[in-house]
Amino acid sequence: MTIAIGIIGLGTVGSGTVKIIFENQSLIKKRLGCPLLIKKIAVRDPSLPRLVQVPDTLLTTEVESLFRDPEIKIVVELIGGLEPARTFILEAIKAGKHVVTANKAVLAEHGQEIFKAARDAGVDVAFEAAVGGGIPIIKTLKESLAGNRILSLTGIINGTCNYILTRMTEENITFEEALLQAQKEGYAEADPSLDIDGLDAAHKLAILTTLAYGTEVSLNDIYVEGIRDIEPTDIAFAREFGFVTKLLAMCRETETGLEVRVLPTLIPEKHVLASVRMAYNAFYIRGDAVGDVLLYGLGAGQLPTGSAVVSDIIDIARNILTGGSGRVPPLSYQLSNLVRLPIKPMEEITCRYYFRFSVLDRPGVLSKIAGILGENNISIASVIQKGREEGGPVPIVMLTHEAKEASVRQALKEIDQLDVVTAPTKLLRIEKP
Amino acid sequence: MTIAIGIIGLGTVGSGTVKIIFENQSLIKKRLGCPLLIKKIAVRDPSLPRLVQVPDTLLTTEVESLFRDPEIKIVVELIGGLEPARTFILEAIKAGKHVVTANKAVLAEHGQEIFKAARDAGVDVAFEAAVGGGIPIIKTLKESLAGNRILSLTGIINGTCNYILTRMTEENITFEEALLQAQKEGYAEADPSLDIDGLDAAHKLAILTTLAYGTEVSLNDIYVEGIRDIEPTDIAFAREFGFVTKLLAMCRETETGLEVRVLPTLIPEKHVLASVRMAYNAFYIRGDAVGDVLLYGLGAGQLPTGSAVVSDIIDIARNILTGGSGRVPPLSYQLSNLVRLPIKPMEEITCRYYFRFSVLDRPGVLSKIAGILGENNISIASVIQKGREEGGPVPIVMLTHEAKEASVRQALKEIDQLDVVTAPTKLLRIEKP
């Protein structure tokens, strides 16, 4: 017996997947009990150079030939983007093929349609590679923590942002300089906005929140801020207070509702997430039974992402060899048990805050600011006021105790209108995951 | 449909398992698609007080009644130790029950017998809870990394030792003082030798090595040193060189064979494993495709270990609901593909070394020591010589470049016979996982 697969797309992840299956063929057979056979690879242009050597006979430009081939049991979609990926996935399902994909965008936007079609057709759809590259976060949430109520999930889930913030932190360079480095090193695209504005993280967080809480999440429900406006001076002040600046994606159950957001955030420097440097990703999960668990690794790249694709292929092959499909529901909860929990508006969340006020160095300024904060029920935990230019602007940096976002916004609005305030106040949230 | 289970043992892990199933019953049903029912719990003395409230009607002293009950599909062995655990597991298998166990000792000693019986009976045996508490290390090796050649696995896999070493490091106290604290806090047994002498770690490492490399490993093959002889002064000197002292369990493929050992080891303080403090465990895995992955969490305790047991129960329930057993081979490789790879003798390994010589403060001592090291092909990377008592003993601390264990032993034998050497040289290995 052999499990035959068809792959759509031979870009970075496709090449990694093929390379792993070729090189570790005999090892995979010893584990799975039978070989994996790549029968066809659909590409747009067979003459293009590739990252992996593939016999010409495997390549085809006709995607439909994969769906028509009765030997192919698993179709692996690795072209990314919304269309034609969505159509290919749905056609594969209709043809009775199981599907493996690394496509977080298509799942975040069309997941419902895809998973319902798969259920009706009695096939599996697996997507470990869509979040966290080779880190087994999807399987861990769906299987290893299946007995747990998930209290919170906090992740560093965008390698580009973490790379930029790490270099800004360790070399005291600006965002623009760090971004340029990231582009040079291949960690950021020419157009980096999907990453640095937080949308990539939001796509992934939408999927993770569904897996953790059994709730459908649309991107609009997720409050997102990227890292474009982070300045080295804030990273440096935060360090003086013992905090590290990270782009955190977080979902959390609270007594007053579900919180889901992507934000640049200060975390204590001794927290294990603070040690996640450069392009590494990490997921910090708190379960009611398991306590705190961290998964850490490379969240992107040809081979790490290929590793996740291959593990999904093997997983489905095991289902084919021993029984039916639908063994583990694709979104962790049975589709019939998925709900739509309300997500708490950002204004209602509470956390600690970091403020950097830009003020004129005049008597009474601090008391004015403190007064407005007090009126808005925001209590100050510590203050640094440094340097002074006679009559010129100086920074006052402040950490608060727990406060409500709405109060903070109201207070900053009032403070930023003071005539001694020379620039909009910088604001960062502080969390202890 | 309901999946009925029987549990043997209602100690720490048993209580945790029952608590999780009771409290998260409806959540588990939403994920699994049907409820888990605890039908019987076998205990020695039903009148004993328990960590969880259980209806009297569930308790029985007759273990055999679980095997005879046709409704019970899964038997969960949580009494630990070799016998009668082994017998109960084999009887359950013979009765056609799937088995979940948290018992690393019985697997390390009788795994072969148990897994072959399970294969012949067509039932599953799962044991996520046997290593790393709630951390999904077993599933990650067997499933998520199934496409990878494992290059190395390095773990902090004994919480008691890590707790003791952390307190010694952070508070500069002796081993004895830290052990006492560990016992007070419930992190060490009254007789702590299984933990502190490294045998518990060796049991776990034997299992992990089999999963990673498809090789049978006996405990005798594993070179083990515990942490009894670690002194605060060595921990402090190591820190001056930028290293942290951890009890590491490691298996690794090298060109000259498989290395498997448990040793107190110095690792660079910036390595992510160095930040694993107190009773936390961590597994650092290097795969040829996935790169470096870390899994981190609580390696013991009622609820974390119960979390792993429940995930195994759910896993098997899913097999029962959708198909056959034997979906994933219990030892990652198909039983017929298990081999017995030779393990490299400790004398043949190479690594960097930390030495602390106790010598009389006389001219020419360092040159004598350096001479012997040189004759044995051991090259010195750095030296600290501190303090001096006129004519009295002083420590000389030295780090080497890569050297061979056999050469090191020979050199230290010669050095320790010098009349200027006042005490046996302290030796620690240095690794960069």
Automatic annotation (TrEMBL), chains A, B:
Pfam families: ACT, Homoserine_dh, NAD_binding_3
Cofactor annotation: a metal cation
Annotated positions binding L-homoserine: 189
EC number per UniProt: 1.1.1.3
Amino acids binding NADP(+): 8-15
Name of this chain's protein: Homoserine dehydrogenase
Superkingdom in the source lineage: Bacteria
InterPro entries (alphabetical): ACT-like_dom_sf (IPR045865), ACT_dom (IPR002912), Asp/hSer_DH_NAD-bd (IPR005106), HDH (IPR016204), HDH_cat (IPR001342), HDH_CS (IPR019811), NAD(P)-bd_dom_sf (IPR036291)
Swiss-Prot/TrEMBL GO biological process terms: methionine biosynthetic process; threonine biosynthetic process
Native organism: Thermodesulfatator autotrophicus
Domain ACT positions: 354-429
Binding site for NADPH: 104
PANTHER family named among the record's database cross-references: HOMOSERINE DEHYDROGENASE
Metabolic or biological pathway: Amino-acid biosynthesis; L-methionine biosynthesis via de novo pathway; L-homoserine from L-aspartate: step 3/3; Amino-acid biosynthesis; L-threonine biosynthesis; L-threonine from L-aspartate: step 3/5
Record lineage: Bacteria, Pseudomonadati, Thermodesulfobacteriota, Thermodesulfobacteria, Thermodesulfobacteriales
Gene Ontology MF annotations: homoserine dehydrogenase activity; metal ion binding; NADP binding
